[in-house]
Each structure stands twice: as structure tokens, then as C-alpha cells.
Amino acid sequence: MRKLYKNKAGFSLIEMVLVIAIICILAAVFMMSISTYIQSNRNRSNAASAARSSVVVDISLSEDQMRALGFEAPAGSAS
Q: Quick check: 14 pLDDT over 60?
């Protein structure tokens, strides 16, 4: 009787599909974690920018209030 199955080297189609599916799942999880990391860094950057803007506004208001009271502009300022 003939041998029905020959010893073949390589992978079957199902094995290749499974490997590709696993790689796709891992890539999706990796991309979601990268996306979360990028968004958290953007949030931190925006918070820092808002804090700097707040300081600039406070300084500007303080200088305007000082001028309104008749004091001279601080040394080194452009006004």
C-alpha cells in the first residue's frame, strides 16, 4: 500500500494563518499602548503650557497694577 502522507518540510496553510493572526493581535495591543502613552504625554505638555501661560498673565497683571498705583516698571522690562 502506498503511503498517504509524505514527510513534508515546511508549514501548513493553517499554521501560517495562525501565526499571522497572532502577530496582528500583538501589533494591535502594542499600537494601543503606544497611543495611550502619546496621549498622556500630550496631556502633560498641555498642562505645562497652561501653567506657563498662567504665570505670564499673572506677571503682566502685576505690572499693570503697579503702574496703575504709580510705581515705575521693574528694571529690565521692555515697557
A: yes
Cell of 49: 503650557
Chain-centre distance of CA 39, in angstroms?
4
Integer Cα distance of 17 and 34 in angstroms: 26
Whole-angstrom Cα distance, residue 53 to residue 29? 36
pTM beyond cutoff 0.90: no
Query: Amino acid identity, residue 15?
Result: E
User: Residue 60 corresponds to which cell in the numbers above?
Assistant: 503682566
Q: What totals of helices (H) and strands (E) does the chain contain, helices first?
A: 1, 0
